[in-house]
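B., you asked whether I could sanity-check this one before it goes into the benchmark set. Here's the sequence:
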Amino acid sequence: MFDGFVASLDALPAWQATAAVLAASFGSAVLLEVVGVRLARRLTSRTETALDDIVFEELRLPIVVTVALAGVYLLTRVESVATATLVDPATLALFFGKPSLSVIVLVWARALNRVVNRVVEAVKNRGDRFDFAPVFSNVWTLVVLVGTVAVLLSLWDYDISPLLAGAGIAGIAIGFAAKDTVANFFGGIALYFDDTYKLGDFVVLDSGDSGTVVKVGVRSTTLLTRDEVLVTVPNSVLNATRVTNESAPGRRRRVRVPIGVAYGTDIDAFEELLVDLALAESLVLDAPKPRARFRRFGDSALEYELLCWVNGPTRAAKTRHRLNRAIYHALDDAGIEIPYPQRDVRMRASGGEMDLGAVGDGDAVASER
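And here's what the prediction gave me:
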């Protein structure tokens, strides 16, 4: 299509081709600025997010400049115009064609860089993602800078193959020299996109470490433990290990309190007692309702488990402590036995058999037969 349009312009005299191209390009730029901008503003004003406003503001200038300078570049490709000038076509392309494309590349590079930087800034201010989001601004700026330089050098007929080869060798050297840093950096990026956790979440690692996420950096994540000690964990380690986020998808957490009672206990009354104790505890949520579950017939006891919910994983240990105390006092007042394991030990001696009886709680009763 482009070649056909250029061929149609070649059939016109130089001044007519120049006037047609300039009128079309600059007229389109003015029309886009007057009509297109107003329409875009009207559409973006109806949305609640400000991200589309950022994109519109930053892409407005490069679009207009591209439309306007496209006509200048096109004139350098029209043979009738090139032959009618006082300079040769190569000089015309050197002073008008390539500079026009260079300006277009520069304005687009600047616009794309500003779009990403402003979007990252807007997301960071919301406070609902990691605090190392601005790292992407720096990485994107570096990518745009390197890409723009490469495109401009290629546009001006400079061979960039040696630069690419040198960059590859330098990248390999840097990768070997700073492999841990690179691993932590990309581990942090993986954690960011996976949304494994965010600031304020309570996480538990395979190593047994647990704590609240207080900082997520480029290289590492910092946890505040229940002992108020800061633990710094490299992002590469977090990316390769199992991380249990006890604050997701919701803040509430279920608490399990195991308890055993003696055989012969009225289990209906016992289950009702457990539920009443859980409902009376202020840290326990009313919904979902607490419940008691008969798990198994143990060697020495009927093994139960009290299940209830608390509003946050950091309240689980305190709630379990309070419930254990309340259950112990309530069972003692109700006369319900909490059994402990007992064993019968018999020993044979040369003079007869000695019965040590039931041994439990460190006491023994001996009788000789």
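One thing to flag: The first strand starts at residue 202 and ends at 205. Otherwise nothing jumped out at me.
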